[in-house]
Amino acid sequence: MKTLQQMTVLITGGGRGIGAAIAKRFAAEGVNIVIHYLESHETANETARTCMALGANVLTISADLRSKEQLARMRDKLESHQMLPDILVNNGGISHYGMLMDVTEEEWDNVMSVNLKGMFLCSQLFMPNMVAQRYGRIINVSSIWGMSGASCEVLYSTTKGGMNAFTKALAKELAPTGVTVNAVAPGAVDTVMMDSFNAEEKAAIQQEIPVGRFGSTEEIASLVYFLALPESSYITGQVISPNGGWHT
Length: 248
Hints:
This protein is of the alpha/beta class. The chain has one domain: NAD(P)-binding Rossmann-like Domain (Rossmann fold, 3-Layer(aba) Sandwich), CATH 3.40.50. The chain has 8 helices and 7 strands. A 7-stranded parallel sheet has the order 3-2-1-4-5-6-7, with helices on both faces. Helix 1 crosses helix 8, helix 3 runs parallel beside helix 4 and helix 4 packs parallel to helix 6. Belongs to the short-chain dehydrogenases/reductases (SDR) family. It is an enzyme of class 1 (oxidoreductase).
């Protein structure tokens, strides 16, 4: 089996936020990094430069998670660079805030396509190589709202709940092959997604969290890294929620 430093991790939506923190965490351990993005070219390159400064071999690549054709081309490019992922982190996604009665069919289809179809396509495209080598890690970045639901986030919650079910089912399917599948479902994390709340609203949310603060992207990245380790091979089909005791 490869050593961790010989492995490659692909992080979808890896240019910023939790995705960037995950890339940096793996880069610090010398893992080969593939940073996927859609349009945030400069942000992805900035994260890549940070990872390279940590000593990692890094490739950035753009593809639309809604497009099987673009993702297939991404797979071909990674194969040509001998960087097919041993570890796939399905992190790329979009949020949606608003009452369900106001959600349009186009909004529904778009969020479903990015959050669920993208995860399905990436897993389907990259897991054959993992199965062939009898080692792999698929880690899906979900959300606390996929476990508990959130008012005015029905669409987003639905996609994350689907992600959790996908995780549990695929884990059973792949268990005999040496490939594990887990989900990390963060609570409130200090990212740009929190910018839609004002200071008073943020303070109110923090009061609801037993530890009294938001999580950091580095804390989420550490959990993702742990699940990717060879010694985590007995952990599969789990939805683990680092949320400061907010949801138990």
